[in-house]
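Pasting as-is:
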Amino acid sequence: MSQQGQKSRGFFGRILGGEKSAPEENLPSAQYSDPEIAGAEAEATHESEVVEETGAVDARESLDGSASTSRTVLTNMGASDAAVPEVVKAGWFSRLTTGLSKTSSKISEGITGLFTRKKLDAGTIDDFEDLLLQADLGVETATKITDRISKGRFDKGIAPEDVQKILAEEVEAVLAPVAQRLVTDPGNKPHVILMVGVNGTGKTTTIGKLAAQFARQNKKVMVAAGDTFRAAAIDQLKVWGERTGAVVIARDVGSDAAGVAFDALKQAQAEQYDVLLIDTAGRLQNKQVLMEELEKVVRVLGKFDSSAPHECVLVLDATTGQNAMQQVEVFRERAGVTGLVMTKLDGTARGGILVSISARHKLPVYAIGIGEGVDDLQPFDAREFASAIASGG
């Protein structure tokens, strides 16, 4: 699987290289002789249940109770900032600041307590570094921040506002290189996005939200319900399919996940879908058997289409703190993770974990989530995040 991670599968490299011709629908017979892919095809035959497009336009409009202006912001995960109305961006920043208030308030209160009417000394710097580490910003980033604050300022005062400014600048410096937009390559029919992560991260909900966003770009979207261990996950995706007009490929609980993925990719290629989002079972990163099943899904996709999956997106739960770091390490090695989505940033005082992960792994961060609504999953903006972290809520 490590070879899969080494492939140049990022969106941007392929887009710069131009469109590719669509894969052939009929593969050579030798390809079907592979035991894994043959087994997956056999499992797929006559078992998949397709949730057809039903009232796509009406469904897209009824995803939530948002005003039309709010819906506009979700038209394109890959849109330029210039294309987003300022009023909409302001509304999102307000929600982001509120969502990150548990993290930012703790940091801001600590800054006020440490730096108000007090000369700077080694003890103050150590206490501030501890505060940053408690927010999971990571040793590397915390050290850069404290070094900047202490440089030339010992035995002198520094205003809390200046500390917050330095904090925002250093956090943005870490995050700016990884803030990338999730776009699809029109040369891939479909563009296959494999979604992975452990139970409870909001992975299945994130798939539904992404399906809604791609549908609003007038893309033809298919979703594969590959979490065959949970009936609730299958049912949840069927509901999202009805709401967004996306076709959902699903099977009975307990079916082979690789078979579902195979069946979905075969149909999506034949019918020229733009995007295929594949759900997977929530796997604890330390469960060898379950990780091997995930690797099988990736292998089967690759044998049907050597370029698939084009993206492997890991969904992380911010409330898990340092455990999220471990998840990135294992899933990157075993599944070739190419990008991240972080959810539940509104539920933790340790939202700095995204900074720590970015400093170490430098993987693209495509989106962040701060709530349950469709509008609460947005493209990641480094400056907005840094400002929200440093603002104090």
